[in-house]
Amino acid sequence: MTSLWTAQDVAAVCGGECTAHFDITGLSIDSRALAPGDLFIALTAARDGHDFVAQALAAGAAGALVSRRPAGLAADAPLIIVDDVLPALEALARAARERTRARIVGVTGSVGKTSSKEMLRTILGRQGRVHAAEASFNNHWGVPLTLARMPADADYAVIEIGMNRPGEIAPLSRLARPHVALITTVAPAHLEAFESLEGIAHEKAAILEGLVPGGTAVLPADLEVSPILIAKADACGAQKILFGRAVTADFRLGEVTLARDATVVAARSGSRKLLFKVASAGRHFAENALGCLAVAEALGADLTVAALDIGLWQPPAGRGLREVVVLDQVDDHLRFELIDDAFNANPASLDAALEVLAAAEPADGIGRVSGGRRIAVLGDMLELGVEERALHVAVAAHPALKKVDRVHCVGPRMRHLWEALPLTQRGEWVERAQDLAARARHLVDAGDIVLVKGSKSSHVSLVVDALRNLGQADADQTRGMA
Fold first, then answer.
1. Would you call 361 helix, strand, or coil by DSSP?
2. In the chain, pLDDT over 70 holds for what percent of residues?
3. Helix or strand run (H / E) with residue 237
4. 210 marked as part of a ligand binding site
5. CA gap 395, 378 in Å, rounded
6. ∠ Cα 379 385 388 (to 5°)
7. DSSP code string of 106-167
8. For residue 478, pLDDT beyond 60
9. Which of 34, 217, 337, 441 could pair with 238 as two cysteines, CB 3.0-4.6 Å apart?
10. Looking at residue 44, what DSSP letter applies?
11. 349 a known binding residue?
12. What is the pLDDT of residue 472?
């Protein structure tokens, strides 16, 4: 395998000292998941990575980046010793960014960051070598790790940038120095740390501070806070591409048609007509895809090829993966559909998920219940601040919820929704997801369509696992939603 770095390279970049000479083919911060040849980076976060250096070396790590020699290591253990591991990783990220000729895309937004990152990986993948993180590595260690892992010969790199508190995005964007920055949307997420939607918009717009001179901002045109984003782009001297339904949009969304497992989109870019399909049901995917096509245009990629390739994208588990669970292997008509959207939740993403559930068609006459049902299992939405109760209660009035037959709620915040539901829709409420998971067989019947949606720490993924374990998923029927 081609060397990514050498120990001497890393030591020189980070101002450290290496105890041995070795080649590095990858970087890892998790001793349980590293590949042979990786440099293990002993970050100190919830746990001190120095406690796992011996384990990492035993698992095949080429060496370890440390700020001290852990006790019990052999005298000739391959180490790169620096003053502080995180700043050293940041220095390595800057060096990776400096040596690459890749066109860099920075992606942020309240909803759709990871989906858009993966869409961009897909649509750019046939037009060059694309580097992007496999997971949502979008924080103060994830962004430098993604950059430091970037091969020198990459053609494109897609860097996801997130935040939980004010002031987090700008330094990460300055580290990445993107040529193009995409803001997917601004929505009520992380309100606990911000006073208003406007505050969130200013923080998201901070990604534009890292743009290279003459860089391009790809911005939503339809939002109440779009003027904030546009003003920031102007202040940063960025070129602008707007996308959305507004007449001012450079990439203008037209008709969106939801099918069972696809979204067909008609749009325009100036005088050009765009017709493309996303192989996942969801109006929000049409908007994300349009923003990604605008990014492809800004990068100088072939827009026609990109519009064709957007149909190859599929979402990962936990972000709207749609699958069929067969309840009876003898009679495979006895099945239900499961929509796994258990990784994240805020009002905007819940709106989109409920719209997809409402558009789905259950199957009648094949289960114990004569009519197939639309069922929602909803876990707490977190970090919503003083509006938390009201935002949960407001879900009861969502237009799409009128087509949902039963709503089960998980967590103390979702109890507010459960109490606001009419008795005809009110399912079970539990404080802990594992209590509902234990009753999985009682929640569904053949012909049903079940959405499971919640913030990751609500642990509604346990309900997904329990529902999936009722049968065997038919891999050929897997479809995406989020």
1. coil
2. 96
3. none
4. no
5. 10
6. 45
7. EEE-SS-HHHHHHHHHHHHTTSS-EEE-SS---STTHHHHHHHT--TT-SEEEEE---SSTT
8. no
9. 217
10. B
11. no
12. 55
Q: Is 109 annotated as a binding residue?
A: yes
Instruction: Report the predicted TM-score, pTM, of the whole model to 2 decimal places.
Output: 0.85
For residue 114, say whether it is annotated as part of any ligand binding site: yes
Q: Which two tokens stand for residue 177?
A: 């120095």
> What average pLDDT does range 19-24 have in this prediction?
96
The domains of the chain, with CATH numbers, are 5-84 (3.40.1390.10), 100-312 (3.40.1190.10), 321-480 (3.90.190.20)
Task: Tell me if 110 is assigned to a ligand binding site.
Answer: yes
**pLDDT tens figures, 429-475:** 999 999 999 999 999 999 999 999 999 899 999 999 999 999 854 43
182: tokens are 């995409």
Predicted confidence (pLDDT) per residue in 143-174, tens digit: 999 999 999 999 999 999 999 889 999 999 99
DSSP assignment, residue 340? E
Q: What is the residue type of 57?
A: L
Which residue, 172, 175, 163, 179, is CA-closest to 113?
163
The annotation status of 37 as a binding-site residue, yes or no, is: no
Q: Is 455 annotated as a binding residue?
A: no
The residue type of 269 is: S
